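Example 3.2
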Amino acid sequence: MFDVTSSQPKSLAALTQQWDQLAKERERQLSSGLDISFNKVVAPTALKLLAGADLSLLLDVGAGTGHFAALASPLAGSVIGVEPSGASVEIASHVCENLQNVRFIQSAVEDVKPIQLPGLASAATAIMVMMAAPDLKFFAESVGSLLRQGGTFVAVIPHPCFWPQYWGYSNADWYHYTTETFVEAPFKVSRDQTSIRTTHIHRPLSQYLSTFADQGFRLVTFEEPLPEESVQAMYPEPWNFPRFAALKWIKE
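Structure, written as tokens:
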């Protein structure tokens, strides 16, 4: 187990400060291709789940450094990225500077009002974001308030059943699968590790499903993507279980 610890619950502002500190390193990982999972597993899975959806106005929640917004741009009429980290938005604006249909709002989705958008979104994404939302119910309510009826919401999260094993804390005395737990560690991807500590929140899968069901979202797809054999070969260690879960809901 690398340096993973449990943490006291953190505010959204405290979590945003961590992502401000990480923004340049995150851009380096994504732009250089060091983040194999984003490029070969996470982003392709999310784009596949968006196929057939109305993408006239796509809201990219927790847009980070803008790399997913850039990938979604050719498929969408308009992409609005919502991101609370100012350092990340600055990078995202540069990453997407030549994409006329992409813009960013520096804000947490919990603080965005429908009046800030040109209309309710036809679809929304949250790519590796919900595990950093300190209040999942408030997050789900906020996404729902910005998404039109019948709209599609696609999210990718660290797989709650397997991520603790992947990161090596499944046997820690403070970890219990059914308990929501704030977890802090240096941010890493398979081929690169930083010294910057970030926090994610472990939640059982049932908590994600019940929270969104309570907010009027109907789950239509659940996937546990695994890389193809040629992609597996790029990793330092083989995948013995899914590392991510991908979910597609329709707002009713």
